[in-house]
TrEMBL record:
The organism's place on the tree of life at top rank: Bacteria
Keywords: Cell membrane, Membrane, Transmembrane, Transmembrane helix
GO MF annotation terms: aspartic-type endopeptidase activity
Organism: Candidatus Woesebacteria bacterium GW2011_GWA2_33_28
Membrane topology: Multi-pass membrane protein
Similarity comment: family membership: Belongs to the peptidase A24 family.
Protein name (database record): Type 4 prepilin-like protein leader peptide-processing enzyme
Bilayer-crossing regions: 81-106, 126-154, 183-201, 208-225
Length: 226
């Protein structure tokens, strides 16, 4: 029963993440307004919005225009379920997962990191009982952001963006000084490996822009949980 409820919660929250990661980068309100079809823009009924079930029921097609529904929706919902089940019953980490997962999706799809999401991560790091003492957290955030800001200035924004700098403040405050150093090293290693693979597969070249935020987030969770 508990697993069923967690799965249900994960699907609902995953559906919400799908919505906000679609709407925020496009400047659309995510509190007001009904959901609509990505293809024909018609409003969707409640039956069209049942997480995962609607996608499977309509075999991946939109009921209103019979166009393909993006696979991003069921993938986000399934990933949300797995994340919540894995982190339960630590609701602080579940909330952090939902926020960072949203940032990861937006940065991959649009190469932007919304300030409001980074500041929410920062806000909860100040309130979290699992974060480090305030001075250590502040210093870690300052150290992390200063390093990335330096790289941003040296590369003139080509190596990373200011969104990465702001995100590093929030994530660094969760980890403390020692773990922040390991975290940043891990992020650069993962980023280098991914970039190398993309170059070898000719899916990218030296001028291709690759979002760095996802590497920061993946490395953050590796360091936090190990």
């Amino acid at each position: 029963m508990e697993l069923f409820l967690l799965t249900l919660l994960g699907l609902v929250l995953g559906s919400f993440i799908s919505a906000i990661t679609y709407r925020i980068p496009r400047g659309l309100g995510f509190i007001k307004g009904r959901s609509f079809c990505d293809n024909c823009k018609k409003s969707l009924s409640w039956f069209d919005n049942i997480p995962l079930f609607s996608f499977l029921w309509y075999r991946g097609n939109s009921r209103c225009c019979n166009q393909k529904i993006s696979i991003r929706y069921p993938l986000i919902e399934i990933a949300s379920v797995l994340g919540i089940i894995f982190l339960y019953p630590n609701f602080v980490l579940i909330l952090l997962f939902l926020l960072t997962f949203s940032i990861l999706i937006i940065d991959i799809e649009h190469q932007i990191i919304p300030d409001e999401l980074s500041w929410l991560v920062l806000f909860f790091s100040l309130l979290s009982p699992i974060s480090y003492p305030l001075f250590s957290s502040l210093f870690a955030g300052f150290f992390s952001s200063l390093l990335l800001l330096t790289l941003y200035l040296i590369t003139r924004g080509k190596g990373m963006g200011l969104g990465d700098v702001k995100l590093s403040i929030a994530l660094g405050m969760w980890l403390g000084v020692e773990k922040s150093m390991t975290w940043l090293m891990t992020a650069f290693i993962i980023g280098g490996i991914v970039a190398g693979v993309l170059l070898l597969l000719k899916r990218a070249n030296l001028k291709t822009k690759i979002a760095f935020g996802p590497f920061l987030i993946i490395a953050f969770w590796i360091v936090l949980l190990i």
